[in-house]
Amino acid sequence: MVAKRPDGIFPRIGTDTYGGRLADAIDNTCAEHGVVPPPRQAITEGLATALPDTEIKGLIASRNNKKVLKPSAYRLVQAGDEQVLLLMCDVHGAAVVPWDLNDRTVNCWSPPAAEASQRVKDLIAAELALHEARKTEKTAEKERESCRRAAGDDTYAAQALAAATQKHEDAERRVRELEDGRQALLTALGGRRPRPVVRAAEEDGEPKAALALAEQPYELAVHMQRYAAENLERAGKTRGYDLAESLVDAGQLSKGMNVLQQWQITRPDGTVSKLWRLAAVTGNNRALARLNIFRVRPEHLVTGMPQSLLPMPKGKKADPELLLLGQREILNRLSDRLNEAAAKPETEATDPSVRAGKIATVSAEIVIGCTKPAALEHVLRTLNVNDHLRGIQPYDEDARLIALFATLVDAYARESLLAEALAEAFPDARGADLLDLVGVRDALTANGPLDPLVPLVPAGDDVSPTVLRDIAVRAITALVFPEIPPEAPKRTNARTVRDTGRFWPIVRGTLQEPAWSQTKAKTAEARTRLWSAAIAQLFLHRGNILSALGFFGVPETAKGAGQDPRSLKVLLLGAEAGDATAWAALVQRMAPALIHAPQPFITAGQGSEAGDGRKGVRRTPKSALAALTVAYTATSAPNTSRALLLAFAKAVLEHPDATQPPEADGGEPLVCYGERHWVEGRTPITAGMVIAPDVEGRPTRYVADKAWFDETFPVELSRPAPGSPGSTTTSPTAGTSTDPTASVHGAPPADPHDQLATLRRELPARVELVESGYQQAVDSAHTLMTDFEEAHRLRVQLGEDALPAEQRIEWMEKLTKARAAAQASVTTLEQVEALILQV
């Protein structure tokens, strides 16, 4: 005998038969419109199990002996160059999970990295051990109190009390050790978690209109889902009203967009469960608020609902450790329980069966098809950003700026100028025409790895995470501060309009800036904030984005950043060879790493201009950067040297990629420089920290921090006296004067011993620079020969006429001059080889 279905407003989910009919209808409708449907399993297990059976009946119609969706049940949306098919239906109020990739919480996630994922696993283990240690501590405390209050003063009682006291002290010590370890892991993670990476789901090897997360352990999935929900709740607290109470009172007034997503969970016993669920693309706060009203946790929906929270009907034995994986079973049990509670007259108004009445079912739009599944995540993310940017709800400044930058990159791509802008910014790229623009877009917005930027690396340079991050920073700078063509000379007195080029109008239109002639300090500050927020997403440790204020002014905002085109390798060699311009450019490349470090060296402006004694010395970000730049040529900095500067620069550029904490020579414990006199409360030493170098460039036993930076590069250094060497811009050939007795600004001649030591230190880098330049010339000549051979082969094959004699003569004259210069340089190099034996 079949049990009667309980009556009530909370719906029952349809059967497998209806799920199969819905899958047939979606497949046929997608075929009619030329879009790719989701996997069939996603429809039957993730979508059909979230709809009441009466709802499924109302969505399907029969035409030509096949199931299709009714025309009123779906709509086709144009999202950029892609089309998305949306199903309009009513889903169970507790069937949608908040999306981890919501753009309002984007600043809570760090770039996806294998090291960060491993640290999260270590953090979960540390939190579990800490929880057990705290329980042990409480037990030991109770035992100690019991012994202390016990009657009697015999020797046995005193020994028991001493043993209980020692046990409690050991438990307290263990808790402190575990808390320190947990804090060190949090510091190593930058206080954030690595962003989940989703990809297009596949069926029979073909991408489909759904998303899938990578396989992850059960504990990690629970931790990440809780972290996402906590940050979403924090972001939602800025609302001017209580969203949950609004839903209870009036229900959901607007639709939300959802997508089918798969969670692959590895159980402790080694089995893998692949669960399909509906994830909210828009309306994440509403989805989370609904689950809170139903008293359902998001992590239970995606990892399995404990049966103890939704017990079986009375009279049936339940396994308390069983996890319910089927969405139909979870929602039906939830509906039965709420319907049963709502039917009781003694049920209070605070019960979920009463509060969730207005959201028993909610209207939703669900992605059931798209033209390009590989780009589905980006399309949905863009729709989410546009929905929020046009909304009236409060938006965190950092998240808003990141969303604006993503919109800017999309604008470049939409105008087909993204590749051209990057090719112009990287003239020495090994293959700018080979860029995967979708991958580049994800890399620049920190939604994917930096590997698609490899074609922008100069030929001959090694590809490393440090180099790719530098390329990403330069690319973001070029897109936010595009260069405009030089002003043409005026030939008449007629009014002319300044040509701003192809790229600046894209920035102006996206950021809604005034005309080019109206660029002021306010515009420069807003653009710098946008740049800083975009750059921050590339680093694990995220500093204050206001720490970059002053890096770019009105000239850079109006005419472009004017970046040095040399690669990181060439700049390091140039700085080692004595080129002050290379060091100045290197400092600009270092600036983001100085801000986003475990111990930041540049922070937002602090101190007081009124009095140093009240708040400390005034130090703006621009002052810190200027002091570091001037230290290369200043003679008034006795605590610095070029060896120190170069060692510090290399360590700072490489610190984001460190996987292990730094260690001092000899095994001595490291402490932060500013905490060297502290006894307790020291900052844990974690991966990514930089060991402070001494004047000779050798590592010390201190970790470089803000105190070390301000002491080594003081404020006074950024304000050199007029006429001093540090106040002038050194040419690229600085340090190569042929006059050994030359003096600077009337200063006494340099000591020949110092000059010799300096030259011996700089010459190896100069030799390497010459070697690199010659290698590039050889590669260019080989490429030129290959191209001419191909042109000759094609001309003979096609029977084309030869080029005009004038053009051929012109080319031959240019190559003759190049060959003569090469031969002269060979003679010079032979002389250098002879001089090497005499140095």
Strand content: 5-15%
Which stretches are low in confidence, meaning pLDDT under 50 for 5 or more residues running? 724-747
Radius of gyration computed on alpha carbons: 33 Å
Structural class: alpha/beta
Morphology call: globular
**Largest sheet at a glance?**
9 strands, mixed
DSSP strand count: 18
The residue-averaged pLDDT reads 84
Query: Count of helices?
Result: 27
Terminal CA distance reads 103 Å
Helix % is 40-55%
Descriptive account of the structure:
Residues 123-188 form a coiled coil. Residues 724-747 have low confidence and may be disordered. The chain is globular. Helix 4 packs antiparallel against helix 5, helix 13 (397-414) packs across helix 17 (504-511) and helix 20 packs across helix 21 (580-595). It is an alpha/beta fold. The N and C termini lie far apart (103 Å).
List keywords for this structure.
839 residues; alpha/beta; 27 helices
Précis, in short:
The protein has 839 residues and is of the alpha/beta class. The chain has 27 helices and 18 strands. The strands form five sheets. Strands 3, 4, 5, 8, 9, 10, 11, 12 and 15 form a nine-stranded mixed β-sheet that branches.
Helices and strands in order:
Elements: H1 16-33, H2 40-47, H3 53-59, E1 60-63, E2 66-69, E3 74-79, E4 82-92, E5 96-98, E6 109-110, H4 114-149, H5 155-188, E7 193-194, E8 198-203, E9 206-213, E10 216-217, H6 218-236, H7 243-250, E11 256-266, E12 272-280, H8 284-294, H9 298-303, E13 305-306, E14 323-324, H10 327-343, H11 352-355, E15 361-370, H12 376-389, H13 397-414, H14 418-425, H15 437-444, H16 465-480, H17 504-511, H18 521-536, H19 554-559, H20 568-576, H21 580-595, H22 612-615, H23 621-630, H24 642-654, E16 671-672, E17 691-693, E18 699-703, H25 706-712, H26 752-798, H27 805-836
Parallel strand pairs: 5-12, 6-7, 9-11, 10-11, 11-15, 16-18
Antiparallel strand pairs: 1-2, 3-4, 4-15, 8-9, 11-12, 13-14, 17-18
Helix pairs in contact: 1-2, 4-5, 7-8, 12-13, 13-17, 13-18, 14-16, 16-18, 20-21, 20-26, 21-23
Region (Disordered): 715-754
Biased composition (Low complexity): 720-743
Keywords: Coiled coil
